[in-house]
Amino acid sequence: MLSILNARLLSRLSTAVARQPVLLVSASRLPILVARRSFITSIPLAFPAVRAPAKSTAGRKTATTAKKTAAKKKPATKKKAAPKKKPAAKKVATKKKAAPKKAAKPKGRVAAKKPVVKKSTRVTRAQAPPPRGPSPFILFSNEYGKNHKDVSIVERAKLSGAAWRALSEEEKQPYVTLSAARSTVAQEERTRYFASVDPDLLRRLNKQRIASKKNRIPVPRILRKPPSSFFLFLSEIRDPSLSAVENAKSAGAAWKTLPESEKEVYRERCLELTKEHKLKLEERAKHLPKSA
């Protein structure tokens, strides 16, 4: 088979290079051709790949053997063992001598802190104004109750009321006289009280009474503060046909639109009235009899 292929190759070469002399090559020197074919195409021709000449391993072996012999000749240098460190001597913890305790001084008595007492703003009974004198009926009712202690308070009030109505005017007269005398003394005490009392205390007292659903204590006119500049203006333009609320609304609207020059007139009047009021209080306090 190979001889046939060589013959075909030679024939092709001869046709391609007709003019050049053809060198006959023996079959032994021709390279072996390997034919690969498929069932569809014609038979192709391919030369086998040229193998690279194998490198001689003799040189490698001699080099490696030489290195091994050199390594054997060199004596292995043993590392010198590091000198063992001597164990450090344990430090003996030296206890510090405790400082001698100072003799404790005898503790004296610590003064106890006084509790902070908050000042109460509540007005007591002693700070309130003295009561008015009793009425004739109250005097009779107190006398009647002493003779009827076996009866309840409600029943006693009913019986005393019926007995008072049954009295004649002559029988009532002693109680009326005694009531007038006591009322005179009580009124003097109240006058002295209101002359020296702080107006702020009366305001606080009236707040307490309103909270307890009691009537306000009427403040004497001499202790009343003078009206403000707005109320002076309101008193001038007050309309009697309108209610107090309606008058206040209309006066407030008019006061807002009032020029500052006109407002200043009412402010000056208010300042003068305040000074006069202060002088009256000081003068009245001088002439009042001192309380016992």
From TrEMBL:
<feature type="domain" description="HMG box">
    <location>
        <begin position="223"/>
        <end position="285"/>
    </location>
</feature>
<dbReference type="InterPro" id="IPR036910">
    <property type="entry name" value="HMG_box_dom_sf"/>
</dbReference>
<dbReference type="InterPro" id="IPR050342">
    <property type="entry name" value="HMGB"/>
</dbReference>
<dbReference type="Pfam" id="PF00505">
    <property type="entry name" value="HMG_box"/>
</dbReference>
<feature type="DNA-binding region" description="HMG box">
    <location>
        <begin position="130"/>
        <end position="194"/>
    </location>
</feature>
<protein>
    <recommendedName>
        <fullName>HMG box domain-containing protein</fullName>
    </recommendedName>
</protein>
<feature type="domain" description="HMG box">
    <location>
        <begin position="130"/>
        <end position="194"/>
    </location>
</feature>
<keyword id="KW-0539">Nucleus</keyword>
<dbReference type="InterPro" id="IPR009071">
    <property type="entry name" value="HMG_box_dom"/>
</dbReference>
<dbReference type="GO" id="GO:0003677">
    <property type="term" value="F:DNA binding"/>
</dbReference>
<feature type="compositionally biased region" description="Low complexity">
    <location>
        <begin position="54"/>
        <end position="68"/>
    </location>
</feature>
<feature type="DNA-binding region" description="HMG box">
    <location>
        <begin position="223"/>
        <end position="285"/>
    </location>
</feature>
<feature type="region of interest" description="Disordered">
    <location>
        <begin position="54"/>
        <end position="135"/>
    </location>
</feature>
<keyword id="KW-0238">DNA-binding</keyword>
<feature type="compositionally biased region" description="Basic residues">
    <location>
        <begin position="69"/>
        <end position="122"/>
    </location>
</feature>
<dbReference type="GO" id="GO:0005634">
    <property type="term" value="C:nucleus"/>
</dbReference>
